[in-house]
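Reminder to self: tokens first, then the designed residues, so the page reads top to bottom the way the pipeline ran.
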């Protein structure tokens, strides 16, 4: 399923272009380089940069399945057949013995091959809010770096010779 779902999601116009995770040729290193390039470019242009790191606490454990499935269907065009494959169930298997299957409403396995991609889809509204406010950002999985650049202005006041803001 990953082989078909992954290219579909990554190729969607709704998947954040600033999400480095899950894209071929991207890694934590390329994400860091992208952020640093923005900071260094701003410095070259005599701008002050504020870098803010966001880490969504317990992102994998807090994914609401109903919201995720709705987002996959409405924003990414995932069909009902594929959504049925994404039934979230849990069981324990030891050797040939398996516990009864129970439904799970919240959370995706962090160690699974599909879990991180589903978290990125689930967190998509965060990117929408950031972009709406014109803030530069970059994602890697559930981590987001915001960088705000401003031209430094100088002025004098009574207490200090130079004040930058």
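Designed residues (165 positions):
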């Amino acid at each position: 399923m990953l082989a078909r779902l992954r290219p579909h999601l990554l190729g969607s116009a709704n998947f954040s272009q600033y999400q480095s995770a899950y894209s071929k040729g991207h890694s934590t290193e390329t994400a860091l380089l992208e952020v640093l390039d923005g900071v260094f470019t701003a410095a070259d242009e005599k701008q002050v940069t504020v870098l803010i790191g966001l880490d969504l606490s317990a992102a994998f454990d807090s994914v609401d399945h109903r919201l995720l499935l709705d987002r996959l269907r409405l924003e990414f065009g995932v069909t009902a057949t594929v959504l049925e494959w994404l039934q979230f169930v849990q069981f324990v298997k030891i050797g040939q013995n398996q516990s009864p299957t129970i439904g799970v409403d919240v959370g995706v396995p962090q160690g699974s091959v599909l879990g991180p991609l589903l978290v990125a889809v689930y967190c998509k509204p965060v990117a929408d809010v950031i972009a709406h406010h014109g803030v530069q950002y970059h994602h890697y999985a559930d981590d987001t770096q915001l960088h705000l650049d401003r031209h430094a202005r100088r002025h004098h006041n009574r207490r200090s010779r130079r004040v930058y803001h």
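Residues 110 and 116 are 6 Å apart (CA to CA).
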